[in-house]
Specification:
- This protein is an all-beta fold.
- The protein has one domain: Methylamine Dehydrogenase, Chain H (7 Propeller), CATH 2.130.10.
- The chain is 0% helix and 48% strand.
- The chain contains no helices and 31 strands.
- The strands form eight sheets. The chain has a five-stranded antiparallel β-sheet, with no helix packed on it. A four-stranded antiparallel β-sheet has the order 3-4-5-6, with no helix packed on it.
- The relative contact order is 0.15.
């Protein structure tokens, strides 16, 4: 039996100030840490995407405004952020930027939003489903997929002008045994892709026909929440109780790795075959520089009511590019991390 330690509630750090710190995280690397964005008081976020060092976005909802979709965008590396509120009914759960101009967001009631100008404006696209969509991924400006409840997969081959249901798409009142919630997806090309699933157990699903059919290539005792590949051979999947799996053969086989916490992990981003970042509950931010043989935790302090306190909010998302990473907690605080 697995036992998870639960921390007491801490007030959300809405008045946090910018923190710049450099610390020795291990003998392997030093980590530069900077708080790019303070927490919001009336918003809740579930996803983060960065196109490059300058352009990034957070995806969530207005929690005191009947749960309306909200996106925060930066075009200057996090110095300033612009807000787009009330974009659609319900919460946004994830998003993806293909480049500095093209991006997509997905969420409740099958919501799909798209931008062609780096997040300055967003247009509604029709997914043809009412299921919650949790993640979206594009391999080029035309080909993309979104995944969600009840094994739902929708695909576009024209940049989102039209979306077609490839699997699932049926809304049920309750999620029963055997129903799979696809939480995260990653596609290698127009045919081959992977998704992390949560049900009574966890799974990594693989498609070789563009999302029409899926086969389980990994079955886990615990739910899996996110998946990421560095290249066609090297990938990671993470989930409950600090579970981390790694593949080095394109998803044929998966090996469980040792992560230094049993808190739930909610996000993973692989920057290279050797470097990846994972985040989760209670301020968990971890990284590896040796392909997962060793994972190290990074301690981040933030200003709470004039005092330096450890970050304890759930770190819901992370994006890694090269030696850099951006992590986001539930209330939109963004932490920039750099291997030095």
């Amino acid at each position: 039996m697995k036992i998870r330690m639960t921390l007491g509630w801490m007030a959300r750090a809405g008045i946090a100030t910018t923190l710049v710190a450099t610390m020795t995280a291990s003998a392997i690397a030093q980590i530069g840490v900077k708080e790019l964005r303070k927490a919001d008081a009336d918003l809740n976020y579930a996803g983060i995407a960065f196109a490059n060092d300058q352009v990034g976005a957070l995806f969530g909802e207005q929690i005191f405004e009947d749960r309306k979709a909200t996106i925060a965008v930066t075009a200057d590396g996090g110095k300033t952020w612009s807000m787009s509120k009330g974009l659609a009914p319900g919460r946004l759960y994830g998003g993806f930027f293909l480049n500095a101009q093209l991006g997509w967001a997905v969420g409740e009631q099958g919501a799909v939003l798209a931008t062609k100008d780096g997040g300055k404006s967003w247009e509604i696209q029709t997914s043809k489903v009412q299921n919650v969509l949790y993640d979206v991924y594009f391999i080029d400006p035309q080909h993309g997929w979104a995944v969600g409840d009840n094994a739902t997969v929708v695909e576009t081959t024209n940049g989102g002008r039209t979306w077609n249901v490839r699997s699932g798409g049926v809304v049920t009142v309750e999620v029963g045994e055997g129903d799979v919630r696809l939480m995260s997806c990653y596609f290698l090309n127009a045919q081959v892709g992977f998704a992390a699933g949560a049900s009574t157990t966890g799974s990594v699903m693989k498609t070789t026909d563009g999302g029409k059919t899926w086969t389980a290539v990994l079955k886990s005792e615990d739910n899996l929440h996110a998946i990421s590949f560095a290249d066609p051979m090297n990938g990671y999947a993470v989930g409950k109780f600090g579970i981390v799996y790694n593949t080095t053969d394109g998803g044929k086989t998966w090996t469980q790795q040792s992560f230094p916490t049993e808190e739930d992990l909610w996000a993973i981003s692989a920057a290279s075959p050797t470097t990846a970042w994972a985040t989760g509950y209670y301020g968990i931010i971890g990284y590896t520089t040796d392909g997962g043989k060793n994972w190290k935790l990074v301690s981040v302090n933030v200003d709470m009511f004039g005092k330096q306190k450890p970050l304890v909010q759930r770190v819901k998302g992370v994006v890694a590019k090269g030696n850099k990473a951006w992590a986001m907690d539930d209330f939109g605080r963004v932490i920039y991390l750099a291997l030095q």
